[in-house]
Amino acid sequence: MGFKLLKGGTVITFNNAAQKVQVVREASVLINDDRIIAITPDAEIETPEEAEIIDVHGKIISPGFINTHVHMWQSVFRTIAPNITLSQYFSGWLNQFSSTTATAFKPDDVYISCLQGYMEGLSGGVTSYLDHAHNNWAPEVTMPGFKAAKDSGARVWWCYDVANRDNYPFERQWEALSDIATGIPASSLVQPGISLDSLSTSFKNDTDNHLQYTQQMIEKLNLRAITLHHLGGPWPTGNTSPSYISDQGLHSGQHPVVVSHAGYLTSEEQKALRDHDLFISITPESEFHFGHGQTTGRLVADQVSLGLDTNWTFSGDMLSQARLWLQSVRRSNFEQTLDKGLLPIETPFTVEQGFLMATRQGGLALKRPDIGVLQVGAKADILVFNGDSPNMLGWSDPVAAVILHANPGDIEHVLVDGDFRKRDFKMINIGCDWEKVKEGFLEAARRIQPLTATPPPMPEKVFGSTGKTGRVVLRHLNIYARSLSTLEGLFPGISSHQRVQIFIGAATDREVIEQCLCNAQLIIYTLGSNDYSPSTVLRNAARTMVTALNTLKRKEEDKGGPTTYHKPHMIHLSSSSWNERFIADRPRLLTWLVRSAFQNSYDDLREGQRIILADPSQVSVLLVQPGILVEEAGFGHEITVDSITPGVSYEDLGSAFVELALERKFDQIRQVGVSTKEGNKVIIRPRATLPPITPLKTITLPPFYDTAKFADERNQILHKLLLKGHMAVAPLRDPHLLLHNHLPHLLGFAYALGADSNQLIKTYEHEIQSLKPIEDEELDSREVITKENWRMFLQQKSELSVAFVAFFDEEVKKSGGDWKKVLNDYLFSGAEPLINGYIGGQYFNLVGHPFIHLAYAYELQDRVVATQALSLGRTEYDPLHTLIDNYPEDNSTYKTTSLAEVLSRILEDGRFNGIPPKEGYLNMGIILEKRKDVVLEHWNAWEVDNTVEQLQQICDLSVLLGLGSGTRPGSFDFYIVHIMTVTHALLVLWDTFPQGSHASILRQYALFTILVYLVQIRRPFDLKKIEEVQTEGKNWNWVISTALKHKWALDPHFFKVVRGPKVFEDLFGAKNEFYLKAGIKFVTEFDGWEGFVDGIDGFRPDRDVFVPE
User: Fold this and answer.
1) pLDDT for 884-913, tens place per residue?
2) Are strands 732-733 and 739-740 parallel, antiparallel or unpaired?
3) Fewest Cβ atoms nearer than 10 Å: which of 19, 80, 205, 563?
4) Contacting residues for 851 by C-beta, under 8 A, at least 6 apart
5) Quick one: what percent of the chain has pLDDT higher than 70?
6) Which CATH class is domain 465-676?
């Protein structure tokens, strides 16, 4: 090997101290054997006499690219699937599980396909690979893949996917990997590793201790890399997440773990990456092409490398991947800014960052800081870009030239471990002859491609997908459906889903049904009717189905030769009511009642079944016969052949259909029953009752009061008092800066209810006594808040509250007094917008005060209230914002659009019994520690599909919770009523939220409401407690007058509760005096707050809560 000198080029190095790219112009790189020993300006270089000198004047010297995810054996498929989706790939087309693959590939084909792929990459500047080698379908194809890696001359981590095949079980695959891995020195260019994809399926219900055995074998064989696929989001997910890998101890301080794709990382998974130094491999072109989805990669850029995935589907070079990722991150961030009506000012992702992801980040992912960089001591994996091509000519910035302008044809030289692999634009033969590789590859491609070129049909067809059972099936299987309008209402965006094909038409439209059934392997038939009147819907649909199947069968037979008609299998929704075995234990009276009530439906169903079952040569049928169907949460299903429970939920029935479709173990049986695991009873839960919805297309929001613009005394007094308080007191107050300054709340609500100037002044003078002067030494912080560092102090340092106010006051001043622009800039920008942490919060922000304060800023159109709200939002930033920034995986067991129903289910959920033991703010930690998954289960159950209607619903619910959940007259929970005051703030702010953010805001609100409800021991709420209130000629004038003279009128929270129902009535109407009765109940009965219990450190209710004189 000896010395080599790359002389006179522009070198892209990496400065460890500055942690950034550094360019050295007119410099030389001196190599000794496999390492870089000097990077020096030409004038200073000392050249050994025996050194080979390569003149690179005017050229760019770059580290080699690192590809951390690829499947090399598939290279021979090139161009046969330009429109393939991931769903089609999973269906058995072109993957390692395809029967076509197993028959088409000879061992030499695997070798030549892999070798060509490595050489293509080397030609394009890839010097290191992590090859996810799932060529595991037969013993004879394993070793050829590894041999190709060795012969290529590239640096390769060859990670074999140990799988359990009928012809090649786990034991033999482990033996094959052992034979490969044994005796490979650490200095070898090719290192053995393992993929956990197939093994991870055995970790569930691990009776054979596969996990423990895998851990032992990784250590025994010294496997030097671990990789696996992980998708998340809407995709089926097994034991492949970063959290699972770290929890099971599969990561190692020595050996890398690279998780491929990982496009929907939860906050816990992101944390696991950083805590255990795991990396993900983003494959931009693949993820855009196949439809994986990639929503969170930009949030964990420090733990991201780049890969290629499938070089047969699209470009096979890393330049394209870096370029695509660079521009996609920019596009995503720019669109977020533009959607808020703002103009992008600075780029969120630089060319240098894109360059490092293709180079140094790959080295870090593989725990090799000596590759992917040019610096003294690094491996000599080096590229030389010529720079004279038309597309690069005139470059001055070498990094931009490489990432934005170069292509593989511009790479003149490639060195791996100090040896040339490409020189003067030509591949150098190391362990192979390129001409022979080319010849062998073309022969394999010509033979294999015709056998694999045609995609298989999407085999599953769902009929009745918009029914209650069908929609559960769709949510699990994501197969295709028929009715577009209803389907879109249930599953927004489903028509653009890559896994769904929709046929629009009636169940009796023969042509549409025929198209739908073409090439069907499995038909999921959930058509049903609960109509009491005579009907022929199901029998007519059955006749159409049979006619369509007969036509398809005849068309195949008319082609001549051996028939290619494959009889599909149908899973048919039926009923147990006429199956004597299933109803043997059911009371005869109940059987008679059910049969009589649904006689017309049963007659139609039975006739439809008879028609479909008449010709077994067309379709095989499995009848699924549940008991009485109820709208309940899923408790787990059981599929039986001898007896069933009387009732089963739609959720459990739908899940049973999914199991029958996927496992197919009951295909040879004519009928099965479905039961719930909850026992022999139908659970019918009472539903929460709310006042009726007032039909509205839009919401007319509460009025804003621009107090500074009105000359009358009352407005001027309010404006002066707000400014005076702003200059005198802090946003937080004693004890220990735990509580909040309610001055704007008190003044704002009193003003809106009509308080005169004297009452406003009296309110101010009373409240100001309990607040913290800004001169207090506890608020004298030495921290300097800047635009660059303010995020460092989120959720901490309450003494900074005044400093934050001063900072935001200055920001408003710099913006020419445009406080709304400052709010938008700081609340709604960035990958983790701060509005996501405003409704909930830490310490005493369980009452949503920053959000309420923000609403006052807009309602009173007041600058000083706005900057106070920003300060509160910083010090009280909700730690649970991560759940809004990146929604966790949907673990719900039911779905509803009613938040009242969610709370009703929480009320009855026995998993919360005794947790927490008593009401009080400290319960938050207990609940999240012990029952976080259950909280998220209920939170995820709430679906936002009509923001206008659901906003009205939660206004009514908040009144019912705050004023209709007391254990006795006069019982009002301090924290529960804050759900209503936060709801009022939500109304005020509704039109200020950027377009597209309303659903997210409602989700944050729902999480806040659920947590407050749990913290305060799940009080039952009852509409009757408000409906039974007697108005006796009282109206809102009486309520307001009584409130203004009330002995509790100086309490910081009293007016908020009075005003909420009044505003709701103004917007939604009287609703049979629901809101008025709530107001009367409150001002009549209120005599102090409940719900504090013992308080927390530094806060005592008997001392720190307002008590009237």
Assistant:
1) 777 788 888 888 889 998 998 888 887 887
2) antiparallel
3) 205
4) 838, 839, 982, 985, 986, 989
5) 84
6) alpha beta
